[in-house]
Amino acid sequence: MNTPDRSAPKRFDKALMGEIGLCVFLLVVFGLMFIxxxxxxxxxxxxxxxxxxxxxxxxxxxxxQLIWRNFKGQGGRSQRILDxxxxxxxxxxxxxxxxxFGIIAWAMAFWLGIVxxxxxxxxxxxxxxQMVIYGEVKKWIAALGAVVCLLIIIFVYDRLAETTWNDPxxxxxxxxxxxx
Amino acid sequence: xxxxDAYAQAASMLFQPLPMLALLFGVVVAMIGGAIPGGSLxxxxxxxxxxxxIDPVIGIAIVVGGAVTNTADSVPAILLGVPGGATGQxxxxxxxxxxxxxxxxxxxxxxxxxxLTGGLIGAVGFFFAIMAAKDxxxxxxxxEFFMLAMLGITMVAIVSSGAxxxxxxxxxxxxxxxxxxxxxxxxxxxxxxxxxxxxDGVPLIPxxxxxxxxxxxxxxxxxxxxxxxxxxxxMKRNKFEFKYMDAVxxxxxxxxxxxxxxxxxxxxxxxxxxxxxxxxxxxYTHAYQSEKGAKETFGTGDIRGVIAPDAxxxxxxxxxxxxxxxxxxxxxxxQAILLAFLVLMGFVPGPxxxxxxxxxxxxxxxxxxxxxxLATGMAFYCTPWLARISFIRxxxxxxxxxxxxxxxxxRANMSVIDLAIMAIFGMLGVFxxxxxWPRPPVIIAIVLGQxxxxxxxxxxxxxxxxxxxxxxxxxxxAICVAVIWLSIRVQRSTSQTVAAALVEAAAEGxxxxxxxxxxxxxxGVESQGQEAEEKGGSRT
Lengths: 180, 540
Description:
The complex is a heterodimer. Chain A is an all-alpha fold. Chain A has helices spanning about 5-10, 15-35, 40-70, 95-115, 120-135, 140-160, 170-180. Chain A contains seven helices and no strands. In chain A, helix 2 packs antiparallel against helix 3 (about 40-70). The radius of gyration of chain A is 25 Å and the shape is flat. Chain B is mostly helical. Chain B has one domain (about 5-530). Helix content of chain B is about 75%, strand content about 0%. Chain B has helices at about 5-15, 15-35, 40-50, 55-65, 75-80, 90-100, 105-135, 140-160, 165-180, 205-220, 225-235, 245-255, 255-270, 275-290, 295, 305-325, 335-345, 350-355, 360-390, 395-410, 415-435, 440-460, 470-505, 515-520, 525-530; strands at about 180, 190. Chain B has a two-stranded antiparallel ribbon with strand order 1-2. In chain B, helix 4 (about 55-65) runs antiparallel to helix 17 (about 335-345), helix 7 packs parallel to helix 16 (about 305-325) and helix 8 (about 140-160) packs across helix 9.
């Protein structure tokens, strides 16, 4: 039995494996798109088939390029892209990860809050908490910000733009409980 | 409608109290957005939420003010050394050292006036280019528009230089997303997973908010501390007292540099997909190579290093708006948002914008002129406030913007599924931003996908393979191939020259200068290390 080459796995770092994983996922999606287009008449199916073909072709070419570059030792070489670049974040990796997790968790909680209690409660509450925790402002300033947010929701989005709000799930639940 | 009638109609539409107020509002939004590092796109996207509900003239006035005035982008670039967005990166190299010397007012005043001159030259270029496009586009049929839309998508991917395949993959995914929903031609429901919400397709606004606004806010929040630390130092060093006549004299003294760099901005703008960043760096490197003594002084606080990119900064919009309106090929993220705005208001880019809606197209040109003048006037008087906006802690700013963009996304269909779509595309956007996948191809493909599908079907039905016998189509293909080739060459030569400029600036920095002046590849300019392809991928 051959001893595995310890240097080989190093060549496939986590980022590369992640990108290849994503490409495999995309290949499956494009493949399924292609297959399901056979249920439709040709007029509706032709363009989806072309797009899924283009998608599979470009994903396969990208995977080949990734692997080729990795073996040529150009894996870490950054590329110029037509976009706003990622601004450098200072600090050690652990604290950055914690901060990133915190930001994402708060945003998710806000959106979940909208589903559960609606915009009128979730938005001011989110703003208040964020301003106190991340903005490090005094509590009364944060409360003022939350009140302004509520007023904007009521007067701009509610009255002026006539937004139809979602029915908050929690309120519906409470109503049902009381009716029981 | 003759072109003169169209001018008269456009002017009479704009010079009314409400549209002028709307234009002013758009300029204010652009100024605030530009003053926030990474804030110009999210703030512009907030406006999208109202696109359905406003009068088209007022909507266009707002979006012209909001999308084509980059005057305030130099505020964070000069004061904090952090670019306001994709723009402002080259300005940092000399603007930030000037601010560190306590000459921020001088740098900002000269930057505003250069931007104004560039914007006006760009507007003149826009009028000439639109007149030329009007005659050319008359001979186009569906195969030509199909080819233009197709090349519009691939071109942006191709000019992503080292990330061509990433751009193509992104565009393919986006095109696949546009297939979701009810097919207008055959009435077939495609990829809806039996969810009624998807019958009308994936709404544009949650996708835009997710892809562009959320990743910028996430990045700003993560990198927030360094911004506020620099803000404290900048406030202590600089007092904002403008000497207007000195600034006018300084710009007039370098008038030929302003003119040349404005023309660079305009021409780069006319080439779809080359992008704003390339125009800035081309102008900067042009000044670096052509100006006397620039090799010794650039990178250490030379005012010409501020004039050159900022003259190109506003001139580029006059150029970029031509392919956006005439053929539906946006040249930057801002133009992609502008295109989305137009589509949401019911305008279709292409021949209609140059014939039946010519007055609307010219409204953009006149709007650019007025918006630039308004923006410069406001920039002079509002710089202390703009500076304060750029100094607001991300911990305060980001939640406010997240709340507003969430409201904008929700208003697309008034459904919580909008929020889920926004969150999914937000995650995708963050991934793309971190791993260097270009986002503009995705958004361009989403905006142009329906059009592509429609022109494809029309071309196949009406012409079949004969469409490749049409000389105008072959000419477009040849022109597009030439533009792609030229774009790639421009990108590569810019990257090489920037690399040389950065290396020299780093090596020849003044003795005793802080490291961040000696080495301009810092903070927001770190990205230019990517441009120069000098640095490894040490992204945190």
